[in-house]
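[RESIDUES AND BACKBONE]
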Amino acid sequence: MNATDVIARADELTHNSETSGLLHGLPRDAYISEDFFRREQNTLFRQGWALVGFAHEIAKPGDVRPVNVGGMPVLLVREGGGDVSAFHNVCRHRGTTLVEKPCSGQRLMVCPYHHWSYDLTGRLRATPHFGGFGEQKVEGFDKSEWGLKPVSVGVWHDWIFVNLDGEAPDFDEHCAPLAELIGDFDMTTLTPLGVIDLGVVRANWKLLMENFIEPYHVPFVHPETTEGQPLDGHYPVINGGCLGAAVDVAEAGEGPAADHLNVSSRYLTLFPTFVLGVYMPDQMGVHLNEPVSPGETRQRRAIYAIGKASRFDEKKIEVLRDLWRAVHKEDHAIVERLQRGRASPVMDGGGVLSPHWETSERRFQQMVVEAVR
C-alpha cells in the first residue's frame, strides 16, 4: 500500500471511530509500507525538529559526530568558540561523506577522496591540485561559495535537534509544550551519567513511541521492574506536541527498582521522536530513536542526574544501567511482537484503543497522519 492509500485508510478508520465511539489505531501498512516510511522521512524528519544527539558527547571544540536524519547524513560539530553547528555530511566536490565515525580534536575535516578540507565553521580551506598539479586556483571557482552546507540546529539543555529544510517553526516554540511540564526542575543542574547503546530494535519507530506514551502496558510488561507504579496511579498527558503519561506514587516501593523507578514519574514525548522520562526527584532519561527502515529503529538512552550528581557513584550508575537495560529489553520484546503482528491483515483495521489509557497514543497517531498528509 502506498502512502496515499495509508492516509486514506487512516481517515476511514478515524471516521469509523467517530461513528462507533471506539478509537481505532493506524492501519498496519503505516508500520510496514516502504512508501509510507519514505513519506515520513521526507516530512516528519526533514521538515520538523528532530532529536539527533547529546551535547555532552561533543563537549570540546573539535569534537565531531556523524548522524543520520531522515535518511540523510548530517555532521554535528563543536566549533572553536563552543557553539554546536550542524552541516550536511557531504563534501562539496563529489559528494563523499566526510566523517564516518565520532572523532575529537579536529581542526579540519578532510575528505578522504581528494583531500578537500573544511574548518569547524564549514568553510572550505583547501582544494589540493584542483587546478592542476600544485595549483588550487580555478577560474570562476570561489572557495568561499563552496563550504559545507549548514543545517539549522537547536540545543536545548543537553539535547541537539536539527531541521533539514530550514522551514520548521521557531525552536523555542517547538520545545515550549514540554518545557512547561518540566518547569519545576532546575535544569541547570542536569548532569549526564552515561549513555546506553541499545542497538537496533526490530520494530517501526512509531511502535516504540506509542509504547512509551501509553501506561496501560506497565503492570503487564514490567511486573517487577515497575511494581511500585500501580496502573491506577497513571494518567495520560496531552499538551500540544507533548504527549505521554504520568504516575503519582505516595512512597517508593521495595522492588528491584526501588529508589530509582518506583517513584512519581513523568513519561513525556515531544513530537515526533523526543522521549523524556522524569523520575522524582533527581533523575531523567532521554531516548534517541533513529528510524532505520519500516521495521527497524536504532535506539540509545542517556541517563541524567538532577541536582547533586555526587549521589550517583559508580556503583549506583551501574545499577541504573542494569535497570534500564532490563526495562528496555521488556519493551523491545513487546514492540517486536507488535511489528510481527503487522504482517497480518487482521491489523488493517488498526485494532482498538482504550478511551481511558491510550488517548495520548491516539493523538500521536493523528499527528503522524497530519504531518505526512
Observations:
- The first strand starts at residue 50 and ends at 54.
- Residues 314-341 form the longest helix (28 residues).
